């Protein structure tokens, strides 16, 4: 028997008990005649004591030769500790060791296995198995497990069935490139790894499964952005015989359940806004509504004077930053530099200080008088002491820039509080999105999303204005999930493919299986998927998903521990009928 107890288990009531522990050496303190060793496992740390008087011959000497991260097993007696450690649950006792076995030695680890480590990101990724021994990473993985269990409990209680769908499939367009897998037995042919189980879950609805879910890996070969993983996990769901309202209710319930079970927080309010409103009020389709600073559109009150910059702009729009009227000239200049950074891309910024005495001071006093500025303050909901920041230009770009500024100011002012949770449904997304690069429309969500019935007639004439029965759940400025009511009619699906630029043959070759299935009694259906990694990170109060993934890839999509991707040998290439053209 390797252990009678874990290293996190022993307390006062175990005093005088004979125990066996196994674990890793965290620390050795050697006073010559007395040695203390901290032994650690997943459950905690226990102090072992060896001394000349009470420890049998040879055992003390073995303790003196231990190095960090050696794996040991000890037998001994639990005794009361003289100097107690209130910081750890086992801090009132120690184990007086009678017998020690070194189960395995260890090289000195490349970084310290402590809560605060001296290891940089790269080093920790390379030795992830050592990183996992550290509390922050270990606890994140345990936390992820807990969230997963709660998701399964909730959905299972609601009648959802977890069904596994295949990983070796044909491309499912979700807007990214596919990872492909060559088929040895089918020369020149490839599987694609699923960007999501989208078509399969729809086929499960045709199959009558009615309520499906799966905690599932998805694969997207995207240009990597910070904190994106090429493989990630979704809570994927689909339901039949439902309307949008039914789906929103179930997943509000899931979110409420998780916030309650995991965070102990009761959230009842899940406000809803349309995509258009989100863009107008926050310049963003995933607004953080934990704080105000809603956009005030100023065209009407700013385009009647000789200020050409504003007069030429499609949109003049501002936000009131609370309490920032006290900013010095230098601080404001810095802010202007910030919005001019290429990442934000504004050409400049106009500001108005709303002084405590009710007067205004602006960077455009030459053009606008107090009465004008008062109207700006009204439109942006500015109070005395606020700083109104105004941007102008092409509408959608300007909104995005002001949204970046809004988030930055909220961050600086400490308004994005980690312990506050504000969910929000964003509804009525556009069905199609114009893509500058390819000069054609793409499905904003995916090609299986149903247009709003009343907008179908606009498909030919104003495709950009067709709204979809599509929705996102946003939490604290992060999109945590999204989905839609699907098309379940073969002809409408064919029409959709046509609008997305597929010829009939192409649509048939790629999605014939789905359109065929729609001829055999496809029920009305819809669903959504939550990004599991992100959800776990947000519930865990952190922004980076990497900490919650056991073996993540780095920002260039590499696994630096196993060194993948990697070359494969000639023989393997030949079997796969692949000739490299490098
Ligand atoms: N398949 C979609 C996605 O991965 C989610 C859905 O529409 O259910 O975003």
TrEMBL record:
Gene3D superfamilies: Bira Bifunctional Protein, Domain 2, GAD-like domain, Nucleic acid-binding proteins
Any one GO CC term of the record: cytoplasm
Residues annotated for L-aspartate binding in this entry: 174, 220, 445, 486
Range of residues in the leader sequence: none
PROSITE patterns in UniProt: AA_TRNA_LIGASE_II
Location(s), subcellular: Cytoplasm
Protein name (record): Aspartate--tRNA ligase
């Amino acid at each position: 028997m390797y252990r009678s107890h874990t290293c996190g288990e022993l307390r006062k009531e175990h005093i005088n008990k004979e125990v066996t522990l196994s674990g890793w050496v965290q620390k050795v303190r050697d006073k010559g005649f007395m040695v203390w060793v901290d032994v650690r496992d997943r459950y905690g740390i226990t102090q072992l004591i060896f001394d000349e008087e009470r420890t049998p011959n040879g055992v003390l000497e073995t303790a003196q030769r231990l190095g960090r991260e050696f794996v040991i097993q000890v037998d001994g007696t639990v005794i009361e500790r003289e100097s107690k450690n209130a910081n750890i649950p086992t801090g009132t006792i120690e184990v007086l060791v009678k017998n020690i076995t070194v189960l395995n030695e260890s090289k000195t680890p490349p970084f310290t296995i402590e809560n605060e480590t001296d290891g940089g990101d790269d080093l920790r990724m390379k030795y992830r198995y050592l990183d996992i021994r550290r509390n922050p990473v270990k606890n994140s993985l345990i936390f992820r497990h807990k969230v997963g269990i709660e998701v399964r409990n909730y959905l299972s209680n609601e009648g959802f069935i977890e069904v596994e769908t295949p990983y070796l499939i044909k491309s499912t367009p979700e807007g990214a490139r596919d990872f492909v897998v060559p088929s040895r037995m089918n020369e020149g042919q490839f599987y694609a790894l699923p960007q999501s189980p989208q078509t399969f879950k729809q086929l499960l609805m045709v199959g009558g499964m009615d309520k499906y879910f799966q905690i599932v890996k998805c694969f997207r070969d995207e240009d990597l952005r910070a904190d994106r993983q090429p493989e990630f996990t979704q809570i994927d769901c689909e339901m039949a015989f439902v309307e949008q309202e039914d789906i929103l209710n179930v997943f509000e319930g899931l979110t409420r359940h998780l916030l309650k079970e995991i965070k102990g927080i009761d959230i009842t309010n899940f406000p809803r806004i349309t995509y258009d409103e989100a863009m107008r009020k926050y310049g963003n389709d995933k607004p953080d509504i934990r704080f105000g600073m809603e956009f005030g559109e100023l065209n009407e009150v700013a385009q009647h004077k000789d200020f050409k910059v504003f007069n030429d702009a499609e949109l003049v729009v501002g936000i009131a930053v609370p309490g920032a009227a006290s900013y010095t000239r230098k601080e404001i200049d810095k802010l202007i530099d910030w919005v001019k950074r290429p990442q934000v891309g504004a050409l400049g910024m106009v500001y108005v200080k709303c002084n405590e005495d009710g007067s205004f001071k602006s960077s455009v006093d030459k053009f606008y008088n107090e009465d004008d500025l008062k109207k700006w303050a009204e439109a942006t909901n500015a109070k005395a002491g606020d700083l109104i920041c105004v941007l102008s230009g092409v509408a959608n770009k300007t909104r995005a820039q002001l949204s970046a500024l809004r988030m930055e100011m909220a961050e600086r002012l400490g308004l994005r509080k980690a312990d506050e949770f504000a969910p929000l449904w964003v509804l009525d997304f556009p069905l199609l999105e114009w893509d500058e690069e390819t000069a054609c429309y793409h499905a904003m969500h995916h090609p299986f999303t149903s247009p709003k019935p009343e907008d179908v007639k606009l498909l030919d004439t104003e495709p950009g204005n067709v709204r979809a029965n599509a929705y996102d759940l946003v939490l604290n400025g992060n999109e945590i999930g999204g989905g839609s009511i699907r098309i379940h009619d073969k002809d409408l699906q064919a029409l959709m493919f046509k609008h997305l630029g597929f010829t009939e043959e192409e649509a048939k070759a790629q999605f014939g299986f789905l359109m065929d299935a729609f001829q055999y009694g496809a029920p009305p259906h819809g669903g959504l998927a939550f990004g599991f990694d992100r959800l776990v990170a947000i519930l865990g109060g952190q922004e980076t998903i990497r900490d919650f993934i056991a073996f993540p890839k780095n920002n260039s999509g590499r696994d630096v521990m196993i060194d993948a991707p990697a070359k494969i040998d000639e023989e393997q290439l030949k079997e796969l009928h692949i000739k490299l053209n490098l």
